[in-house]
Specification:
Elements (H helix, E strand, L loop, with lengths): L27 H5 L2 H13 L1 H6 L3 H22 L2 H22 L13 H18 L7 H22 L3 H26 L1 H6 L5 H28 L3 E8 L8 E8 L5
Antiparallel strand pairs: 1-2
Helix pairs in contact: 2-4, 2-10, 4-5, 5-6, 5-7, 7-8, 8-10
Length: 264
């Protein structure tokens, strides 16, 4: 039995041909397509700083976990090791758990919690710890389980989309869902249609997944911040801005906060 540190000790192997560009890097493009994680993570930490000071400093933790995902994903695709696979998937799990703890509206909490966020966070931490342990038992299903969590997030976003008339929130939800759908399509096509892509010599769909999902993160973060503000920051107004300029056709979304003592 190979060591969990050994190259290609993972049962998961993506469509890109191995060791084509380097003897040290198993999947070259899948490895270096994680670079956007190290760009968008610090940028969002900086741009969302005023919001984090007002709402929760756990926002910084989520940004750090996002960068850790990029790091572990690079390690996994560089080595295709079992350890790399687990670190990649577990870091995603904990980032999603952080997002649930900070931003899930209380109306979606289990009824026995009575809308108590500290108790909900405790429940999320315990559930995530158990899930982390279970991920070692059936590692081949981890990726599918993580994508199923995205379906629940999509359900919540859809419910909030129906509730709001806020054009900024509706636009962010639409962009986030489209980006996520394109990213997921790339992931599925690489996973299940590999023989076709190999025939046409196109091995880059999982790399495209990395780029698209890293772009989805800022939009998803700001979307959930706006959703959360409807319940938790009712005396303040969140204005969506875009870096580097609002007037540019594309940019990273973030929020500015103003106190206006509005009524619910």
């Amino acid at each position: 039995m190979p060591s969990i540190f050994a190259y290609q000790s993972s049962e998961v192997d993506w469509c890109e041909s191995n060791f084509q560009h380097s003897e040290l890097v198993a999947e070259f493009y899948n490895t270096f397509s994680n670079v956007p994680f190290f760009i968008f993570g610090p940028l969002m930490m900086f741009l969302m700083h005023p919001y984090a000071q007002k709402r929760s400093r756990c926002v910084y933790v989520i940004c750090v976990l996002f960068m850790i995902i990029g790091l572990f994903s690079m390690y996994f695709h560089m080595t295709l090791s079992f350890l790399g696979q687990l670190l990649d998937e577990i870091s995603i799990l904990w980032m999603l758990a952080g997002g649930y703890g900070v931003w899930l509206p209380r109306c979606y909490f289990p009824t026995f919690l009575g809308g108590n966020r500290p108790q909900f966070i405790f429940l999320v931490v315990i559930t995530t710890m158990i899930s982390t342990f279970l991920s070692f038992l059936r590692p081949t299903v981890n990726a599918y389980a993580l994508n199923s969590i995205a379906v629940h997030i999509l359900y919540i976003v859809f419910q909030e989309y129906k509730k709001t008339n806020n054009k900024e929130l509706r636009h962010l939800i639409e962009v986030s869902v489209v980006l996520w759908a394109f990213a997921l399509t790339s992931w599925i096509c690489d996973r299940f249609l590999c023989s076709f892509w190999q025939r046409i010599n196109f091995f880059y769909l999982h790399s495209i997944w990395h780029v698209l999902i890293s772009i989805t993160f800022p939009y998803g973060m700001v979307t959930m911040a706006l959703v959360d503000a409807r319940y938790e920051m009712t005396d303040q107004t969140l204005k969506v801005r875009y870096w580097p300029r609002d007037t540019w056709p594309m940019g990273l979304p973030y929020v500015e906060i103003s106190d206006d003592h509005k009524n619910c």
